[in-house]
Structure prediction request, 182 residues.
Amino acid sequence: MADFAQWSLDTIRNEGATFSWLEELRFEWTPATSLALEQILDGKTIVLITDAKRRWFQEYILSNINSAKLERPPIPIINIDSLYRHYNDVSGGDMIDIIEDMVNLSLKGKYFFWYIGSGDDKRADIAKRKDNSYFWIFDEDYANSFNLKSYDKHLDIKLLQVYRLFELSLNGAMFGEVDVSN
Prediction:
């Protein structure tokens, strides 16, 4: 079974020149993504959260991650809005505590947050409270994160490329091609 860091580098190189920008960021990619993949393999549900500008990407992920075309078992994934429709109206730590308690009770503690978006967006607050959250975060260094720049004119394309690498990594982990254990 291949080491995840080396496997990621080989996969990035195999995807071609358009993925070359990812090669220098693989040291951020590897630890954050291996933790997320371990949690998926452990049967945890992904609670996906994006900022408002990445709502399109949330829909893309939800539409594609368990596509019937894939030849792997589906994984449990939901978005925060499906758990609490009024999440955008949440303000203050006490209300976030209540929402987090509801999520914890609903999913019996077997979940992690996957946040994609600006680090200063209030939708990130609930994910930032959990040590096992997974982040594709913009303009901020944060634990368990893959960092991108919000002002990058190719950001949307890069998000799709990173998602492609995530899908390949998920398949590799599920089929025992790569070792994602820390």
